[in-house]
Amino acid sequence: MPDDVQVNERLVIPAAELSWRFSRSSGPGGQGVNTTDSRVELSWDLAGSDLLPVALRDRAVERLGSRLVNGVLTVVASEHRSQLRNREAAAARLAGLVAGAIAPPPRVRRATRPSRGAVERRIADKKRRSQIKRGRRGDVD
User: Fold this and answer.
1) Burial code of 102-135, b = ≥16 C-beta within 10 A, e = fewer?
2) Which neighbouring-strand residues pair with 84?
3) 20 to 30 Å CA-CA from 5: which of 16, 21, 34, 139?
4) Helix axes 54-63, 83-102, angle to 10 degrees
């Protein structure tokens, strides 16, 4: 049973801050699907947690805003037959979401122009290609 959720090498969500819920899954499982609680819901109070620094928490809340309900991030896993594998899948999904949400923003792309030589080479290649295609045509005039 996974206790703590390892988000990255420096961040681990302790089991005390996680909330697990189990219910019957509609996924694979044959006859056992009606009797076993294999569906897993894993919740973490992102907005109320003191685990992240304020800047990272604000970034995560902003990026995951549409997935949060009252500041709580919930992931669901029901693709496996066993509860244990669904627990592992939910923990991995939560770790991936949090890692992506707290990642630093990508560098801003600076607009550049192609060099004059690159433009001339491109146009020369286009002219060469059109000559090749023109040579394939028969005289239709």
Assistant:
1) beeeeeeeeeeeeeeeeeeeeeeeeeeeeeeeee
2) none
3) 34
4) 110
Tens-place pLDDT, residues 77-119 = 988 888 889 999 999 999 999 999 999 989 999 999 999 999 9
What is the token pair recorded at 98? 């949090």
Strand partners for 45: 72
* Site of tokens 């709580």: 72
Cβ neighbour number for residue 78 with a 10 Å cutoff: 21
- For residue 30, is pLDDT > 80? no
